[in-house]
Amino acid sequence: MAKYLGIDLGTANVLIDVKGEGIVLNEPSIVAINSRTNDVVAVGKDAYEMVGRTPANITAIRPLKDGVIADFNITEKMLQYFIDKLNVKSFFSKPVTMICAPTNVTPVEQKSIIEAAEQAGGGKVYLQLEPKVAAVGAGLDIFKPQGNMVIDIGGGTSDIAVLSMGDVVTSRSMRFAGDKMTLAIQAHVKQSHSLIIGERTAEEIKKQIGSAMCGNESNTFSASGIDIISGLPKEITLNEKEVEEALSDGVTQIVESAKTVLEETPPELSADIIDRGIMLTGGGALLKNLDKLLSKELEVPVLMTDRPLDSVALGTGILLENIEKHKKY
Fold first, then answer.
1. Could you tell me which residues are beta bridge partners of residue 152?
2. What are the binding positions for ATP in this chain (predicted)?
3. Which of 102, 133, 207, 211: disulfide with 244, CB 3.0–4.6 Å?
4. What value does the mean pLDDT take over residues 75-99?
């Protein structure tokens, strides 16, 4: 009997849900390649440990950018590694797979995502829009004739959508999300402190003292890097308020996109959203006080799902269990 795999092919992480087992894999979307031989050295967690620490002949590659495939061959190798690791293929059956894409994905990008999954798993592949799947994973019943709004902030994209009767009514997808937050912190530290810090350090700053509003100056983080002027190692101290300012332009983009989606929503569905609130999912949803800022600016209750990092993977699992019932959607 064929296995059912739900894959959240994220820019930052790949999560795989196996029907009946739940989420069985959660690893970084990174592949380490030997540039001399073109061989894969490491994938996932092992490759992430190499970021910023490799010799010249080893390159740690993120094959996905802004929610879509930037390097098809490396993405295929990465998926192949993860699926093989789960041991879900057999000679007689190949897994049925559901994989996700941002709402603004082009037909060419859709085709490349499906092909990568087919080459890696070999079975039937379904493609679904990320905010739709995230909403299902967050516990929303999107198949009723009522308005549900979700803001899914992943690694590569922030997808904002209003859903009703199993489909997207109106949406926006923007390429400011977790990765761009990390880059914004790196840029701020370089400009304000003349210090170059690595991606992993910036990521840790975001997790520890990142904030969308009401940043507390007493919450600090010691960051080490290379001084631009002297070229020597140097350590500085950042505070929460400073990081909030570094992220403010990008966070404002998310707020404005959410306002646009609400403005384009039919009145009856808008009334439902006011009553039910907006569901916030994805790793970027963990940014401190982001839910409060969105609620304040949109004048609508904003709720955080219990498992924001897992919503898309959980949603693929739920939809696959009901694939026959909902296939028309």
1. 159, 281
2. 11-13, 155-157, 203-206, 283-286
3. 211
4. 86
pTM: 0.90
Q: How far is CA 152 from CA 26, 61, 173, 183, 282, in A?
A: 18, 24, 9, 19, 5
**Is 277 annotated as contributing to ligand binding?**
no
Alpha carbon distance 25, 44 (integer Å): 10
180 is annotated as contributing to ligand binding: no
CATH code of the domain occupying 178-246: 3.90.640.10
Q: Residue 48: its pLDDT value, please?
A: 93
Instruction: Judge whether 284 is annotated as a binding position.
Output: yes
21-35, 173-187, 246-260, 311-325: least confidently modelled range: 311-325
Query: Which CATH homologous superfamily contains domain 146-176+250-306?
Result: ATPase, nucleotide binding domain (3.30.420.40)
Higher pLDDT, 219 or 87: 219
Annotated binding residue 12: yes
Q: How many CB atoms lie within 10 A of CB 84?
A: 12
> Is 231 labeled as ligand-binding?
no
- Establish whether 204 is an annotated binding residue: yes
273 vs 35, residue with greater confidence: 273
The token pair at 250 is 């990008």
Annotation-wise, does 13 bind a ligand? Answer: yes
d(CA 151, CA 284): 10
State yes or no: 203 annotated in a binding site.
Answer: yes
Q: Which fold has domain 4-28+64-132+312-326?
A: Nucleotidyltransferase; domain 5 (3.30.420)
- CATH 3.90.640.10 residue ranges of the chain are 178-246
In DSSP terms, 196 is beta-bridged to: 226
- Residues with Cβ within 8 Å of 309's Cβ and at least 6 positions away in sequence, in order, are 13, 15, 26, 282, 283, 286
- 237 among the known binding-site residues? no
**Residue 103's closest CA among 128, 81, 79?**
128
Select the highest-mean-pLDDT range: 1-15, 83-97, 265-279: 265-279
